[in-house]
Amino acid sequence: MNYTPLFLSLKIAGIATCIVFVLGVIFARLIARNNFPGKRILEAILLLPLVLPPTVVGFGLLYLFGKNGPIGSLLLNWFDYQVIFTWVGAVIAAIVVSFPLMYQSAQASFQNYDRNIENAAFTMGASKFKVFWTISFPLAWPGLLAGLVLTFARALGEFGATLMIAGYIPNQTETIPLAIYFAVESGNTDAAVFWVVSIIAIGFSAILWLNWWSGKNILKFTSDK
Amino acid sequence: MLSVDLKKKLKNFSLEATFDVSNEIIVLFGPSGAGKTTILNSIAGLTHPDNGYIKLNNHSLFQINEKPLPIQKRNIGYLFQDYALFPHMTVKKNINYGMKDESLVNELVSVVGIGHILDSYPHQISGGEKQRVALVRALATRPGALLLDEPFSALDEETRKECQNELLRLHKLWKIPVIMVTHDYKEAEKVGDRIIRIEKGKLLEN
């Protein structure tokens, strides 16, 4: 049995999750807390991958990162680098499809506590940086973690956009969902079942752990004496 | 001395407030939505007036056409209505968050009598205790003035009286300008050296 799809999937989803987490938190803070013209439109664009078929996202990414695409041609000219048909392309696909989940979770969790808690810290002389790390981030953390797990799960399960931008290259861009599809295609049911069971196990434990953890944490600040 | 002269357009009326506070307790008394909290927020720097100035000991906090002093640099203690204690920190960490010196904190803690709950979290203590913690936390930063937004409204009658006495006692020890907002006239009379009535954004001094 070749376990490359497992490691490849964990690598791609892991890297994508880290990037999405940072981007999601930054965007949620900047966009949710400030009013500017075009805010609703920007938000709609950021959330769009949530409702679009992954093939549409993949098509868009192919256009952007293709040899003649606006980003692809720059990468090719400046760094002599192509992301199409590489695992990096799969990371980009995972980032784009999972970003809305992180963004929504982050936005909700930064609105989930009383703004005056931050204001109180400001009146005590704390800098914006200090308030973010000591007040906002810890208070938003349960929600951020939920977003993190959802992001990872979504990135792990990404299929359509990944296939379009990264293609199916065994041992290079063959993530678990792709391995399942092509195993079924080629009649290799045993391999398909193996990967189906493993991805169900990963997803199930992630959600189970998340529910257990958030239940414990909600109790922490609300239970009485 | 805290000097306020501000104008700000609110939803249904315009707020105009001009008053000075020396080292006394001023009570802003009036119905909900009269603009009381807006005055406190303007002094603290959470919102900005459209016109006028705010000065603390001849230090400009806000002056029209100038960049307002950021909240962090105003040195104004603010006690919020719901206390806004940090729920994920113990009482001790709450108090130490903006502490200027430890001996002051120790003195405050013993004056107010919250030494036994220093290791508790805010959700583990009573309303009266939360109120005292928030007061000590605000005073621990050695503020140049103290703002109190309906500080006793969530407390039962007896605790409320105790906390009012506490405030008066603390004010005797640390004489700074204090502005307290309330809509309880009995409380206003008991605590305030002066009462300023406010209705639809206009001040009427008693």
UniProtKB/TrEMBL annotation, chain A:
GO cellular component: plasma membrane
Protein's membrane topology: Multi-pass membrane protein
GO MF term list: molybdate ion transmembrane transporter activity
Keywords per UniProt: Cell membrane, Membrane, Molybdenum, Transmembrane, Transmembrane helix, Transport
Record keyword Cell membrane present: yes
PROSITE patterns: ABC_TM1
UniProt cross-references to Gene3D superfamilies, sorted A to Z: MetI-like
Domain ABC transmembrane type-1: 6-208
Segments passing through the bilayer: 12-32, 44-64, 84-103, 131-153, 192-213
UniProt-annotated location(s): Cell membrane
CDD domains reported in the protein's UniProt record: TM_PBP2 (cd06261)
Stored PANTHER family: MOLYBDENUM TRANSPORT SYSTEM PERMEASE PROTEIN MODB (PTHR30183)
Function: Part of the binding-protein-dependent transport system for molybdenum; probably responsible for the translocation of the substrate across the membrane.
NCBIfam families per the UniProt record, alphabetical: ABC_perm1, modB_ABC
Protein family: Belongs to the binding-protein-dependent transport system permease family. CysTW subfamily.
Descriptive protein name: Molybdenum transport system permease
From TrEMBL, chain B:
Gene Ontology molecular function, alphabetical: ATP binding; ATP hydrolysis activity
The ABC transporter domain, residue ranges: 1-206
The keyword Metal-binding is annotated on this UniProt entry: no
Signal peptide: none
KW Nucleotide-binding (keyword) present: yes
Pfam families per UniProt: ABC_tran
Gene3D superfamilies associated with the record: P-loop containing nucleotide triphosphate hydrolases
UniProt entry keywords in alphabetical sequence: ATP-binding, Nucleotide-binding, Transport
PROSITE patterns reported for this sequence: ABC_TRANSPORTER_1 (PS00211), ABC_TRANSPORTER_2 (PS50893)
InterPro entries: AAA+_ATPase, ABC_SmlMolc_Importer, ABC_transporter-like_ATP-bd, ABC_transporter-like_CS, P-loop_NTPase
PANTHER family the record matches: SPERMIDINE/PUTRESCINE IMPORT ATP-BINDING PROTEIN POTA, SPERMIDINE_PUTRESCINE IMPORT ATP-BINDING PROTEIN POTA
Identification of the protein by name: ABC transporter
